[in-house]
Design brief:
mainly alpha
Length: 96
Amino acid sequence: MRGAGDALAHHRFRERDALDRALSGKVATFVERIGEFSLGIVRGQIEAAGGRLDGMVIWGDVAYTREMFFSPEYWRRTFKPVVRALSRSVMRTDCR
């Protein structure tokens, strides 16, 4: 399952626009929408598996080779709620 950070990275927009969007809240709104979509996919996969899942991987690209795409504070505020929701959805099942 791709994470919100990975989806955002693949959304590709110019660097200057990225900063403007982050500061305006548009990135946070986009991340929330990706998170809701991803949560629906995870729930659907869990339901479709009918208890046969042994585990699930939640991943996303959040960094370059030397630094993150954004500050840890911004990640905690914007992306962590999405990761938390995905994780809790999986942890509510026998899939661990």
